[in-house]
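Board notes (copied after class):
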Amino acid sequence: MKKVKLIAACFCLIGATLLVAENLPVRGPLPFSAYDKDNNNLISEKEFDAIKEYRMNQKANSGMPMRNTGNSPSFSDIDVNNDGSISKEELQKHQEKRFNNKMMNNQGKGQGNRAF
C-alpha cells in the first residue's frame, strides 16, 4: 500500500512539474497566463500552488535570498469571492494592491533621499 501511495505521489509531482516546466521571471508579478495552464480563464488552486512552488524553487536554485517566503500570498488571499478559482480581475487587483503597498512601504528610502 505504501508503494502505491509513493508511486501516486511521484506521478503527481511529475505532472505538476510538467505543468509548469517553463522559464518564469524570477522577479516581479507573473502574468495570468503563467498560472492558467488549462486556458479556461480561471486559476485553480492546483495551478496556483504548482506555479508558486515552481517559482520558489526557481528562486532558491538561482541563489536569490528567500526572505519573507512565509508572507507570500495564499490562494485564499487572492480568491476574494471564495468561488474556488482566481479570475483575471482578482489577480490583477491583488498584484496592484501588493505593488502599491510596496511603494508606500519604500517611501523615503533609497539613495535619492539622503540628507547631507
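Comment from the instructor: Helices lie at 2-20, 32-35, 45-61, 75-78, 88-105. The two ends are 70 Å apart (CA to CA).
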